[in-house]
Write a structure and sequence with these properties.
GO biological process, one term: transmembrane transport
Keywords: Cell membrane, Membrane, Transmembrane, Transmembrane helix, Transport
Protein name: ABC transporter permease
Radius of gyration: 23 Å
Main location: membrane
Largest sheet: none
Structural class: mainly alpha
Distance between the termini: 38 Å
Family: Belongs to the binding-protein-dependent transport system permease family. CysTW subfamily.
Length: about 280
């Protein structure tokens, strides 16, 4: 009993910190979203959000950006992780350093660097026009495309790391057995490596999607106000409109969206296991 009380005492500062820094602000945000000036409770703010096209468009755009970010990270990150896992230790260390390098630079600095590269007179458009590939500069920023490029740049390392870890855990004897049975490299990749690495791919996709839902800096700068995500709408409601109930309601909806993603993920994992899918999922 004394040992349990001692462990609880060690955990008490962390519990208090979580309560003060997370639980209390979330409870206050929920109360602001449902409280009327006279002290009564109402869901009018949520009904207004669901019936106003500006807000519904923001919700739809948020899920579109998050989904496209996951897709581009999967298309770029999975092959990169496969290469990292298949090369020698020294080259793999260099590639891992390349993946980790963005974490050593501030997000705001990286985002503004991308805006310099992608703007109308930036290096990318200048290269395309100087080489004759295009006749006039392309709109690479202040739109959906620029937002996806920026989000992929930020989220790609977070997708690569769990995929790389999952591939490295695959027993090489299984891959050798597939090759000895006459399986081609493509068939081995499709039937052996990817199913066994599904756990890492799944974890990376969920991580990227959840983080993308509430991302603010990159869509605000590279979207140029033309990609209205929930996070940017919350900022506008607070700083421009001073509409704290609407901003709080959007925050609650964003939190519920994250919870819904985790719940759907849990159901998918259980369904795959019940159907006899990959043991790693």
């Amino acid at each position: 009993m004394l040992a349990q009380l001692g462990f609880f005492g060690l955990a008490l500062p962390a519990v208090l910190l979580v309560t003060i820094a997370i639980v209390v602000p979330l409870a206050a945000m929920l109360w602001i979203s449902i409280a009327r000036p006279d002290g009564t409770v109402s869901l009018d703010t949520y009904l207004k959000i669901m019936s106003t096209p500006v807000y519904t468009r923001s919700v739809l755009t948020t899920f579109q950006v998050s989904g496209m970010t996951v897709l581009t990270c999967a298309l770029l990150g999975t092959p990169f992780a496969l290469v990292m896992a298949s090369v020698g230790r020294r080259l793999a260390s260099i590639l891992l350093l390349v993946v980790m390098l963005p974490f050593w630079t501030a997000l705001l600095v990286r985002t503004y660097a991308l805006s310099v590269l992608l703007q109308r007179n930036g290096l990318v458009n200048r290269f395309l026009t100087d080489t004759g590939l295009v006749s006039e500069p392309l709109p690479l920023i202040n739109n959906f495309f620029g937002t996806i490029v920026g989000m992929t740049h930020v989220m790609l390392p977070l997708f690569i790391l769990p995929v790389y870890a999952a591939i490295k855990q695959i027993d090489q004897n299984i891959i050798r057995a597939a090759a000895s049975l006459g399986a081609s490299k493509l068939l081995t990749l499709r039937a052996v490596i990817l199913p066994l690495a599904a756990n890492g791919i799944f974890a990376g996709a969920v991580l990227v999607f959840v983080l993308s839902l509430g991302f603010y800096v990159t869509p605000a700068i590279l979207g140029g106000g033309r990609v209205p995500m929930i996070s940017t709408r919350i900022e506008q409601n607070v700083s421009v409109l001073s509409d704290w109930p609407a901003a709080s309601a959007l925050g609650v909806l964003l939190l519920l969206s994250v919870g819904m993603v985790f719940f759907v993920t849990f159901l998918l994992r259980r369904s795959i296991k019940a159907l006899g899918g990959s043991p790693n999922v």
